[in-house]
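Thread: Newbie trying to understand structure tokens

Hi all, I'm a second-year student working on a class project, and my supervisor (Dr. K.) asked me to get a predicted structure for one chain before our next meeting. I've only ever worked with sequences, so writing a 3D structure as a token string is new to me. If someone could post the tokens and maybe explain what I'm looking at, I'd be very grateful. Here's the chain:
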Amino acid sequence: MGIVSLLLSYFMLLRHIRRRMQKMIFLTLILLAVSGVYSDSHTLRYYYTGVSAPGYGIPEFSIVGYLDDQYVELYSSDTGRTGPVASWMQGKESAEHWERESRIDRENEAVFKRELLLWNKRFNNTNGFHVAQVMSSCELRDDGSTKGFEEFRYDGEKLMDLDVQTGSLMPIMNEAQIIAQRWNRPDVRRGDIYKVYLENKCIDLLKRFLEHGREVLERRVRPQVKVSGQEKGDIMMLHCQVYGFHPRPVDVKWMNGEDEVHSYETTLVLPNPDGTYQIRVSAEVTPKDGDSYSCYVDHRSLEKPLDVKWEPAQNALLAGITSAGVVVLIIIVLAGAGFILYKKNKRRYIAASASDASSDSNTAVTA
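---
Reply by user tm_fold:
Sure, no problem. This is what the structure looks like when written as tokens:
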């Protein structure tokens, strides 16, 4: 194979891996974003990820644990060890606990590798880069009730769900029919194993980890809110930026008086470097006489929801002031540049005059 063909194959592989990884990362972000409505519940999630072609800094198998929005635990096939990640988890569990979890996760890794090979055959993907993911989650609600969830994905697409009530795997794709039948066999009943884990060990770990990090997880930081408007012909694009809040769950929407504005765009709740969060909600409206737009924000840190009004007059005035400021700034810059050029030209003129005078003086002496 020529060098050109090798390079083309290499770059095609990189592009293929990048697409797969982008889909995998996007899936993880979506799953992390599923925080539910405003409540005092807590959730422990584990993300199991296996790849068919390790390399490029990607472990062949990994397990990442999150308690609510906190990254708390990690297992990687590169180390074969499970350990705490969050600073408030350090030293809170015994060495025996982490050794036991490492042994269990090494067993999970072996099972995952076998399953990924079978999944690849089921999808006729015996070569290339492929990703298998499992999200295992248990929730402890504020009323003491619990809920479990288990989801299986292949190359970013949902493959199967666990019916926690019956302990059965429910296929989503046609290719998953045989996989689900194999797992649901009376001599296997893998769904029952998942069900028992979600209802018992997962909840026990959640409660223990919650005690370790309660001060961090349950801190309350009030959101800051900024509203603005941007004209696009007859349409006004309204933006509501909510930032600096903790914990993560928040309810943000645009209102017109008592009516909710339904045509809006919402970003994901994104983390800030200081551990707080931000979100932006935008709406396209056509303002009419009598309309009164405001951004409604409800958050766990607030005694009552915020209602921040958008004032068109103030917005227009601010835009006018900004435009005038830009004009003044341009004038100042141009004036300053002109003054500098004037000073430079003046110095050149003086230097040239002095040179001419010196030349005339020398000529006279020689004569």
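A couple of things are worth pointing out once you decode it. The radius of gyration is 32 Å. The mean pLDDT is 81. Feel free to ask follow-ups in this thread.
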